[in-house]
Automatic annotation (TrEMBL):
This is Fructose-1,6-bisphosphatase class 1. It catalyses: beta-D-fructose 1,6-bisphosphate + H2O = beta-D-fructose 6-phosphate + phosphate. The gene is fbp_2. It comes from Pseudoprimorskyibacter insulae. HAMAP family: FBPase_class1. Mg(2+) 2 binds at residues 114, 117, 281.
Amino acid sequence: MTDTSMTFIQFLLDERRRLDTDRDLTTLLHSVATACKAISNALKNGALADVLGSLESENVQGETQKKLDVIANEIFLKRCEFSGVLGAMVSEEMDHIYEIPAKFPKGRYVLLFDPLDGSSNIDVNVSVGSIFSILKLNDVPDTNSYDQVLRPGVEQVAAGYALYGPSTMLVLSTGSGVHGFTLDGNIGEFRLTHRDITIPADCAEFAINMSREQWWEPPVQRYVKECVEGEAGPRGKYINMRWIASMVAEVHRVLMRGGVFMYPIDEKTRDKGGRLRLFYEANPMAFLIEQAGGAASTGRGRIMEVAPKDPHQRVPVILGSRNEVALIEQYHAEHDAT
Ligand code: AFP
């Protein structure tokens, strides 16, 4: 059987044999993949299934919820609680830690997830995704508080995302490289299509929401200005720009062809600590990017070393080709030294 025909569960079983990964992790990842397949199915009918549009409700972030935000969250909860290996779940869409129902066995794993990231793109039919991060605790956690799950990103044992784009892909790392799987509609399974994804150390593409330029810190303004100056500027080369407003799609592009994605702190987000959430956006993406040979920084330090104080806390995000991230960190250090 060649790699390209290997299904997701066959890949997991192969990793378990080769790397002695935990049987319970295999079970959990299979449940996550099933949830992503179900979400992909819920998305594809769009307006035909009357699942577009917003609800009256807001999530813990104070953001208006799309119908599909709630649908995707429910799918993750139902598909993953059944695995019998989870002690708790934390979701972008819920303000409380999710207690696994008593009818299911519990385990030491904790699943952190953003069930549908980029959901403001749903109604205009632009790619969205699901992001997940997995921690393994020493004991089944007490879900009366978040205390036991407030662990830094360096303690993740696995992370990944599903990208609901022209094709549906699942990208995963369990700490031994980054691998991509494409959903085969003929058999309803993810199949290995991208083994050992690696990011070029240099790039000529950046992604940032340019409309926020006036609020950025000086080192970010300096970096972006030099990118825009292109051949005539200090970079001496044309540097392209992209902005999809869907983190999963941006990170996937960076994994596929290099580049840097930035959602830095700015005057408007400073009081919240940034825009993107540490637990279920920044940390899992940082895990993948580092596993693929890239770098993931707040601008002043490694994202995965940020000590979490709240499960919904936000953090500045600068990730991608490692030499580019290093340059941006250098600009922050030079600015802070003045
Ligand atoms: P939504 O889930 O509210 O669409 O936010 C998506 C996101 O968290 C991330 O996926 C994007 O990179 C970023 O926000 C887009 O931010 P802008 O709205 O400033 O473009």
